[in-house]
Design goal:
This protein has about 270 residues and is α/β, with parallel strands linked by helices. The chain has a single domain, classed as Alpha-Beta Complex (Spore Coat Polysaccharide Biosynthesis Protein SpsA, Chain A), CATH 3.90.550.10. About 40% of the residues lie in helices and about 20% in strands. The protein contains ten helices and eleven strands. Strands 1, 2, 3, 4, 5, 6, 8, 10 and 11 form a nine-stranded mixed sheet that branches. Strands 7-9 form a two-stranded antiparallel ribbon. Strand 2, helix 2 and strand 3 form a beta-alpha-beta unit. The chain is globular and about 55 Å long. The two termini are about 30 Å apart. This is Glycosyltransferase. It comes from Colwellia hornerae. Keywords: Transferase.
Length: about 270
């Protein structure tokens, strides 16, 4: 088994069809079998029916390509992903959002980098919006001040040239948003499951931080580009339940890893200097 893909679906009937079509087409170009877990968190927009159509379409493949997991309610991002991770058998694990459209060349580049660099546990692509504009998908570990600036001024930040936008060289990063990750099985086995004390976010920061704790690097591969047709639930100034959930998760993260204002001591603990 080459790749086990874990996709979350929540009222995603519009993007998930393109997500699955492009993923299935890309996986078919590899010589090895793969599997796709689609975890639906109680969608009410027709997503469930669409996922079942894909399951039926590919049901004759052995082993099964499409492996849906259905929940009757929204269980968040951690419990749901863990349900799939527990069953994943692939040499690599692809964590993918339902609005991320992966392609064969990007997957091939990410796999090649992981195979050539055993100290890297996670390789992540350059993400672009559907418009083609650069998406700031990698960042330093969040402090309270840094997170406030990102919350208030993300569009402005993304409109300015960023060092990751200019580089053509693979670069180690603190963390990447979980729209598209490729991890080795060894890394997943050592890092473990997502922390279910976090419901919605920042589960991706926590997982990346734990990857560094386990001695794995996280590397941004600018030559691998993936479209992320993102509409972040917590983006913008208008407050919502997602903002409060994110804030709660952020305080939990910082308390768990014993840092709030600065990153110097955290970097020393993680040996994060390269």
């Amino acid at each position: 088994m080459l790749i086990s893909t874990v996709i979350l679906s929540y009222n995603s009937v519009e993007p998930i069809q393109r997500c699955l079509d492009e993923l299935i087409s890309s996986l078919a170009k590899f010589d090895e079998e793969s599997e796709i877990f689609i975890v639906d968190n109680g969608s009410k927009d027709g997503s469930v029916e669409l996922i079942k159509q894909y399951e039926n379409k590919y049901q004759e493949l052995q082993p099964a390509l499409i492996k849906p997991i259905f929940f009757s309610e929204n269980t968040g991002t951690t419990y749901s992903r863990n349900a799939a991770l527990k069953r994943a058998q692939g040499k690599f694990t692809l964590v993918l959002d339902s609005d991320a459209y992966v392609n064969y060349n990007a997957l091939k580049s990410l796999i090649a980098y992981l195979e050539d660099h055993h100290d890297v546990g996670m390789a992540v692509p350059r993400l672009a919006y559907n418009s083609g504009n650069f998406q700031l998908s990698c960042d330093v570990f969040p402090t309270l001040i840094h997170k406030l600036k990102r919350f208030l001024f993300l569009k402005k930040i993304e409109s300015k040239p960023h060092e990751l936008q200019a580089t053509n060289i693979p670069t180690n990063v603190d963390y990447a948003i979980s729209a598209c990750w490729l991890l080795t099985k060894d890394a997943v086995d050592k890092i473990g499951l997502f922390d279910e004390n976090i419901f919605y976010s920042p589960e991706d920061v926590d997982y990346c931080l734990r990857a560094w704790e386990c001695g794995y690097k996280i590397t941004y591969i600018p030559g691998a580009e993936v479209i992320h047709d993102a509409q972040e639930l917590s983006r913008g100034f208008k407050l919502s339940m997602f903002h409060f959930s994110h804030l709660k998760g952020l305080f939990y993260l910082m308390n768990k890893h014993k840092y709030f204002w600065g990153l110097t001591n955290l970097y020393k603990r993680l040996n994060r200097f390269s």
